[in-house]
Amino acid sequence: MTRAYPFRALAALLLLSLAGLASGAELGQLPADGTAYRNAPVALPFDIAALKANWRKRIQAIKAKGILPIIDIESSFNTMKLDLRSLSRSMDDEGIALVAYSSNSDGRKWSDGAARVVSADPWRYMPTTNAGIYPAWTEAPLEFLEATKQHALADGYPLLGEFEFRHYPSPRQFRRGETNRDVHIPINGPLGHDLFSFAEKTGIPFQIHYEIEDTLLPALEEMLRRYPKAKLIWCHLAQIRYASRSTIYGPDYVRRLIETYPNLYFDVAFGGPDSVYPGSREHHARIWDRAKGGILKEWSDLISHYPWRFLAAMDLGGDRQDQVLEHAQRLRMFLSYLPENAREIVAYKAAWKLLFGEDL
After folding, report:
1. CA angle 194–200–204, rounded 5-degree value
2. How far apart are the C-alpha atoms of 359 and 116, rounded to whole Å?
3. What pLDDT does 308 receive?
4. Neighbours of 292 (CB within 10 A)
5. With 0-12 CB in 10 A as exposed, 13-18 as middle and 19+ as buried, what is 252?
6. Quick one: average pLDDT of 83-99?
7. How is residue 348 annotated by DSSP?
8. Alpha carbon 135 to chain centroid, angstroms
9. How many Cα atoms occupy the beta-carbon half-sphere of 219 within 13 Å?
10. Percent of the chain predicted with pLDDT > 90
């Protein structure tokens, strides 16, 4: 039987601790309305220096309120369904300093959705290229990747969105019977080589969704060896959908990867301790200690030893933009269980250093 009470109690305490954080001028002006991005001018290439000045002020303002700032390195939105003012206000309420905003291109090879959002709210969003998801990435991958590379360079994007190489349907999609995001693109095939090569040549970090299974690991390591300077963020640390398909991966394996491949990073977006993947009926976030509460000591020790290789993330999606509170609480709960020396680094410092090469 799962002992959920300690987690729920801590979540309640975290909520109370954030009660004093409200929107204010020091956090950056809120967008005029929920659709302010639709007619926002697209000013490209991005003035990253000016944006960073805003972002630094916002991070300091959150810290001044006694709240640990968070940079969410991995979330995506459908701009046609986005209520920007509501989302920005929710970020203020929960102490989320920045979101690496990746737009769903709705099947097009490119969308300036992220650029328009940054124009409408230059305080809260870091421009990230379109998410590599269905249908653009799966139905016209060559055109999508070519457009991504072109805009990443010409427009000055500091981060490439999440590319799905092996992806099972999310729990919600599984329950709805949606199979279009059951994706399998060989990471060591032509598309993978093109993406890794581009990342290595330009130094722009990129993200992948890649299920954790024994048969998939050799191909990933092959690419890490081939492109040692490509900065890769492997999303969803220790999220394993089917335990029977994953016997190699664990803290010791991740430690070996970290020590072998200096440009490999992990984001910590995964389900809560009670989250079950309906396909396997298993708890798929393998980092939680559901018997004692908190996170398993071997994972805590690993992150404590290498905190700069782990990045905070909420993994908000197009159908979850109203769940900032839930995702932020779960992330803060996880961060609260980390040793103090690692907490601030994982929350926001590691992301800043990866993207901009600076200590914050």
Report:
1. 100
2. 28
3. 98
4. 11
5. exposed
6. 96
7. I
8. 20
9. 19
10. 85
Task: Read off the CATH number of the domain in which 230 is found.
Answer: 3.20.20.140
CA distance 248 to 237: 14
Closest by CA position to 19, among listed 57, 52, 67, 78: 67
Its domain, for residue 55, covers 5-356
So what's the pLDDT on residue 61? 96
And the tokens for 297? Answer: 């000591």
Amino acid 1: pLDDT: 32
DSSP-assigned letter for residue 241: S
First CA to last CA across the chain, in angstroms? 42
Q: Are β-strands 96-103 and 70-77 bridged in parallel, bridged antiparallel, or unpaired?
A: parallel
Residues 233-246: pLDDT tens digits? 999 999 999 999 99
Q: Does residue 23 or residue 276 have the better pLDDT? A: 276
Q: What's the rounded Cα separation, in Å, for the pair 155 and 127?
A: 10
Number of domains in the chain: 1
Strand-strand pairing, 264-267 and 310-311: parallel
| Tokens read off for 155 | 């427009």
pLDDT value for 81: 87
Question: What are the residues whose beta carbons fall under 8 Å from the beta carbon of 212, sequence distance 6 or more?
Answer: 238, 239, 240, 246, 249
- pLDDT reading at 108 higher than 80: yes
215: its two tokens: 């048969």
Which residues have a Cβ under 8 Å from the Cβ of 168 and sit 6 or more positions away? 174, 181, 182, 211, 241, 277, 279
Mean local confidence (pLDDT), 206-234: 98
